[in-house]
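Fill in residues.
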């Protein structure tokens, strides 16, 4: 893990198209701004963990969608 010190209005550049800016420092909280392409998904860790858990639960779900064959006609 790379650990950096930044001051207000300073930035960190990741690759060619992601910029993280220090927007505000208030007590023990730091507000950051992230400028990234729309194709790059950016989540807070707790949101990312919740999404992963929901996806994992959905994969383990016992609910199955019944198969319907629309090609056959009922007689």
């Amino acid at each position: 893990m790379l650990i950096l010190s930044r001051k207000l209005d300073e930035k960190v550049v990741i690759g060619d198209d992601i910029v993280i800016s220090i927007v505000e420092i208030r007590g023990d909280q730091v507000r950051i701004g992230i400028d990234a392409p729309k194709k790059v998904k950016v989540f807070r860790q707790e949101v990312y963990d919740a999404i992963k858990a929901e996806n994992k639960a959905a994969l383990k779900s016992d609910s199955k969608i019944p198969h319907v064959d629309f090609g056959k006609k009922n007689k």
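The chain has one helix and three strands.
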